[in-house]
Amino acid sequence: MPRKSGTGCVTCRIRRVKCDEAKPCCQRCITSKRQCDGYLPGDSTVTRRQLADAVRELGVIGPVSKALTQYPGQRLSPSQVDSLSLFDVFRKLTAPSTASFLPSNFWTGELLQLAHSEPAVWHATLALGALHQKHELASQESGPDHRVDVFSRLANQNYAQAMTHAQALRDPHRLLSLSLALVSITNMMGRWSESQVHITAGHRLMLQAKGHPAVKLAAEMLMRLDLQALTFSESSAPYPYADAPDMTDVTKCMRAAAIENYEQAGTSLFSLVRRFLLADETLGMCSEAQVQEKLMMRDILQDLVDWEFKMAIFEKNGQTGEPAAMSVRLYHTLLRVMIAARRFGPDTRWDDLLGYFERIVACAESLLLATVTPEPRSPLSLEPGVIIPLFVAGSRCRHPVLRSRVIRLLRRLKRHEGMWFSDGAAEVCAKTMQIEGQTILTGDLPPIAPVQDIPWEAWSMGRVQPQASLSWEGVERVPEIMRVRETLVLVTTEQRRVDLTFIMCSGDDIGTYGETRFESVTY
Questions:
Q1: What pLDDT is stored for residue 347 in this prediction?
Q2: 410-412-413 Cα angle (round to 5)
Q3: With 0-12 CB in 10 A as exposed, 13-18 as middle and 19+ as buried, what is 387?
Q4: E strands of 101-254, at which residues?
Q5: What distance in Å separates the CA atoms of residue 88 and residue 429, rounded to the nearest whole number?
Q6: What does the DSSP 8-state code read for residue 255?
Q7: How far is Cα 60 from Cα 20, in angstroms, rounded to an integer?
Q8: What gap in Å lies between CA 37 and CA 25, rounded to an integer?
Q9: Predicted pLDDT of residue 482
Q10: Cis omega (within 30 of 0) on the bond before 466?
């Protein structure tokens, strides 16, 4: 005979009905087609009313009992209640914010579910929740707040526990998912060497889990985080170009017969950007390497044209919704401007690409407007967002109006995107502008044109040269010899300081390196 609901599953207890207490799921829930939320430990003192309130607050994916107890056999304690609040921050803020530009089922679905069954992943999500809270407080500029130190301590404690529990994990797919969370934690903490260790581990695990039906999503997220590391490449832990894997499985996804959603479109585009940057950076000095590099670039360009053609078909089927469509256009324009500039030649070659830079800024502004929320929160993402394209525009475009617009926007954003801080990027751009003899403009800036609707077919046929509403007429250009060719950064996150090495242009027509200058900024 079924027992009373006081010792039954969570679902039956809340509903005040008898439970047969079958494990792992009671038959009453299965028969009525309800989700059985599992069982609390036998010594649990949680009342039915407390249980109902907790379930309403959590709204978790998967058995509620897992979230309420963290691990089977443990009772709820004050520290566990704090843990639940941190998990809630990750679930309600960090994951949705990360997926606000491009859909990301990994953060909003897969990792959440895994957290309820794997202690290592659970603690990793708690660390991310604590770091999100720390970021929120630090960005308010209301003076010192002791809670920043509290959340920093919680983040470090949970990161350490995640690393400890990771030693018991054996499944490569679950370890891969955990490694992505660990990469994100160390990115936000500014531990660049540890982040590189986790990325390297992720690549190794991806090979071990090859063929696993669930590994595809995690592999795509690894590629996005790897692109982030490639673009940041902090001097204390520079990106290992020579050992960078080709991530063939993700490339195969890009070469699918058709694009079916924006998540696939974005991942494919990020893969192209990553391949281009790797090919551009690893160009060798010998003729054989130059030939190989040219072949790589030819393949990349052909894949880009194919991607543009498939995007035209995809969006003709009515898929043009914001903000994912604008995110795709933002990174597509970034890739196109880098291809158009080519690797060699004087740095003044970037001046001819003003229309591309204006389009990048217009896309970023449109994207931010499309994702604005009524809550006065400082946004955060674990993946690449608007900062990387804006930083490229602020560094490479020498038009003072557009450059000033980029720096103002970055300063205003207070965004944190993985390794990238918008205010730090703004100050590096501002220092670059100063080194090159320019001054950030004050007062009202002239408007720029909205994002031009350029058909994907036109891009694929090579018939596009984005037009700018701004002009070089009457604007003094930065002389070649005064331009910064490369910028190396050494970032100390806790001190909010960036030490800079500027490698200047030599002033010749082929774009060789000139003198080196050392500067620093705080943000």
A1: 95
A2: 65
A3: buried
A4: none
A5: 36
A6: T
A7: 24
A8: 8
A9: 97
A10: no
Length of the chain: 523
Low-confidence ranges of the chain (pLDDT < 70): 1-6, 24, 41-46, 51, 53-81, 141-143, 211, 213, 248-254, 282-295, 319-321, 374-378
- Asked if 25 contacts 66 with a C-beta cutoff of 8 angstroms, the reply is no
Q: Among all chains, which residue has been given the structure tokens 């959590």?
A: 58
Give domain limits for the chain. 5-71, 77-243, 246-318, 321-477
What DSSP letter does each residue of 172-208 carry, written as one string? HHHHHHHHHHHHHHHHHHT-HHHHHHHHHHHHHHHHH
Q: Which fold has domain 5-71?
A: CD2-Gal4 (4.10.240)
d(CA 369, CA 446): 19
- Which residues lie across from 516 on neighbouring strands? 503
Separation CA 111–CA 383 (nearest Å): 15
Q: Are 12 and 22 in contact (CB under 8 A)?
A: no
Helices (H), 345-436: 354-370, 387-396, 400-413, 422-435
For residue 375, the model assigns a pLDDT of: 61
d(CA 307, CA 467): 23
Confidence at residue 61, expressed as pLDDT on a 0 to 100 scale: 45
Contacts of 421 (CB under 8 A, 6+ apart): 387, 415, 523
Distance of CA 476 to the CA centre of its chain: 37
Residue of 319, 276, 266 lying closest to 298 (CA atoms)? 276
321/233 Cα distance (integer angstroms)? 33
Spatial distance between the Cα atoms of 381 and 388, rounded to a whole number of angstroms: 13
Cα distance between residue 205 and residue 166, in whole Å: 13
HSE of 135, CA atoms in CB hemisphere, 13 A:
34
Q: What are phi and psi for residue 311, nearest 5 degrees?
A: -65, -35
CA neighbor of 360 nearest in space, from 383, 315, 326: 326
Q: Would you state the pLDDT for residue 481?
A: 96
CB 522 within 8 A of CB 421: no
Amino acid at residue number 43: D
Nearest to 219 by CA among 229, 234, 204, 239: 204
Helix (H, G, I), strand (E, B) or coil at 342: coil
220-229: b or e for each residue (b if 16 or more CB lie within 10 Å)? bbbbbbbbbb
How much is the pLDDT for 296?
77
Q: What is the pLDDT of residue 152?
A: 94
Structure tokens at 428: 């590096």
Rounded Cα gap, residues 136 and 129, in angstroms: 11
